[in-house]
Write a structure and sequence with these properties.
single chain; 196 residues; mainly alpha
């Protein structure tokens, strides 16, 4: 993030950051934002990331109250303005270091307000579900996708061969039995281990 010794008004880009943007936006982004960038490029990239976060949140999360949508959209809009007004890359990073934990707390439930507490280690101070709480739910298709992913990545102990398990499913499933029902019948304890 320091200014280049060779090119005036250009800042170094951490390789990990380049890979991160590549992971999110694809290979083309890798070539747009690597090695060195101007302050303007940094501002564009981080504002783009914030827009993507907001869109992902709104498109992915099923929300039961509109206040969280408004709060997150407001936080992101404010952060974009802060970024646009920064005079150097280091100040952009500093503002993001403050912003992202606040956003995480808000996504969990609310931003803690422990100003008056003498100790912060009390467990009740960290229960942030006063207004809402996170509950991850999976559809049958999402459960199937998760199990397949775990099998492919060898993350289910004792089930190390994805192709073998798929063949086993094809040969031992009952008529009209879907993958999840088959998995529960054949591996009930593995199912409980994954989803409990």
């Amino acid at each position: 993030m320091r200014e280049s010794d060779f090119i005036k008004n250009y800042y170094e880009i951490d390789f990990g950051l380049t890979l991160f943007f590549n992971q999110i936006y694809g290979e083309e982004e890798y070539y747009k934002f690597k090695e060195y960038a101007t302050l303007s490029d940094y501002k564009k990239q981080f504002c783009k990331l914030l827009t993507t976060l907001e869109k992902s949140f709104l498109d992915t999360c099923i929300i039961s109250d509109n206040n969280i949508k408004k709060d997150i959209s407001y936080m992101i809009s404010e952060q974009k303005l802060i970024i646009k007004n920064k005079k150097n890359v280091e100040d952009i990073y500093k503002s993001l270091i403050i912003f992202y934990p606040k956003l995480c707390f808000l996504l969990i439930g609310k931003i803690p307000e422990n100003y008056s507490f003498k100790t912060k280690s009390n467990r009740q101070n960290w229960n942030l579900n006063e207004f809402r709480q996170i509950e991850y739910k999976l559809t049958v298709q999402q459960k199937k996708n998760l199990i397949i992913n775990l099998l492919k990545n060898k993350k289910i102990e004792g089930l190390d061969d994805y192709n073998l398990e798929i063949e086993k499913f094809k040969s031992t499933r009952l008529e009209d039995e879907n993958f999840i029902d088959w998995f529960i019948r054949i591996y009930p304890y593995k199912y409980i281990e994954i989803f409990s």
